[in-house]
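User: Can you predict the 3D structure for this chain?
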Amino acid sequence: MAHFAKLDKNNIVLEVNVVNNNVLDPNNEEASGIAFLIELFGEGSNWKQTSYNAGIRKNYAGVGFTYDEGRNAFIPPKPIEGSWLLDEDSCLWVENVVPS
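Assistant: Here is the predicted structure, written as C-alpha cells:
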C-alpha cells in the first residue's frame, strides 16, 4: 500500500488516501499512484506520495500540512504558542529557546 496526499493550489494537504499495490507499477510507484488517483478524482487534482517511515518527503503528510517544493518535504503547521524555528534537516518545528 502507498499513501498519497491531495494538495490544494497552495500546496496545503486536504486529505491522504491509500492506494493498493495492485494498481501501482513497482518501477514507478508515485507516477502510477498519481495517475490512478487522477482517474478516480478527476483532472486538476494535485497529489504527492507520502510515507509513514519518512522514507520520502521527510514527514508523513497530515491534513493541514504544507508541501514545500524547494525542500521536497511535508511540513506540519507551525505551533501557535511560543517562538518556533523550522529544523531544516527534519522539517519539523522546534521551540526557539532564548538563553537567559
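Strands lie at 2-7, 13-19, 46-50, 66-68, 73-75, 84-87, 92-95. Residues 2-95 form one domain.
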